[in-house]
Amino acid sequence: MSARAAAGAVPDVLAPGVRVVFCGINPGRWSAAAGAAFANPRNDFWRLLHAAGFTQRQLQPREQSELLRYGIGLTNAVRRTTRGSSELRKTDFAGASARLEEIAETLAPRAIGFVGKVAYTGVFGGRAEHGLQDRRLGSTALFVLPSTSPANAAVSWDERLRWFRELKDLVG
C-alpha cells in the first residue's frame, strides 16, 4: 500500500497552535482527485469559513495549508473515499475516536468542529444535534456543524452560517 493510500487521498492539515480542527466525514471524489478537503465547487465549506470570519478571504481548496496561519486544522473521520457518506460502514470509523483523542491531547485545540452529524455520530455513536456537545476530549470542546455538502440542501445557507459563527465565537 502506498503512503498516500495509507494516509488517505486527502492529507490532514494539522500543526501545533491550531485553535480549531474541522473534521469532515470522509473525502468525496472531488476531494480525492484534488488531494484537498471540501474540493467540490458546490460545497459551501470554504465560503462559510470566510463568511463566518475564520479567514480574511475565501481560500480555495488547493490553499488548505494556508489554514494553519489562521489557527485552523483539517482532518476527516474516515480516510476512505466514497461518492457519499451513505456508502460508509461502521467499520470505516474504526480508530477515528483514538485518532481524534490524540489530536486533542497533542494539539489541544479549543474545539473540534464536526462538519456534519455523521462525522460525529460515526465516531462516537448515538445521536447528535447541531452545536456544542456534552462530550469533550480532554479540554477540547466538540461542536457539530451542519454538513456543507451540496447533498445537504435541506439546511439553508443562513442556518449553516449561524452554526459556523457560533463555533467561531466559541474558539475566538
Please describe what this structure looks like.
The protein has one domain (3-171): 3-Layer(aba) Sandwich (Uracil-DNA Glycosylase, subunit E). The chain has 6 helices and 5 strands; from the N terminus they run H-E-H-H-E-H-E-H-E-E-H. The chain is an alpha/beta fold and 172 residues long.
CATH C-level category: Alpha Beta
Q: Main β-sheet, in a few words?
A: 5 strands, mixed
The geometry reads as: globular
Whole-angstrom Rg: 14 Å
Q: What average pLDDT do the residues reach?
A: 91
As laid out across the biggest beta sheet, the strand order is: 2-1-3-5-4
CATH superfamily: Uracil-DNA glycosylase-like domain
How many domains in all? 1
Total number of helices: 6
Features:
five-stranded mixed beta sheet, alpha/beta, Uracil-DNA Glycosylase, subunit E, disordered N terminus, globular, 172 residues, single chain
How are the SSEs ordered, and which strands pair?
Layout: H1 3-7, E1 20-24, H2 29-34, H3 45-51, E2 72-76, H4 96-107, E3 111-115, H5 117-124, E4 131-137, E5 140-145, H6 157-171
Parallel strand pairs: 1-2, 1-3, 3-5
Antiparallel strand pairs: 4-5
In short:
By secondary structure, this protein is an alpha/beta fold. The protein has helices spanning 3-7, 29-34, 45-51, 96-107, 117-124, 157-171, and strands at 20-24, 72-76, 111-115, 131-137, 140-145.
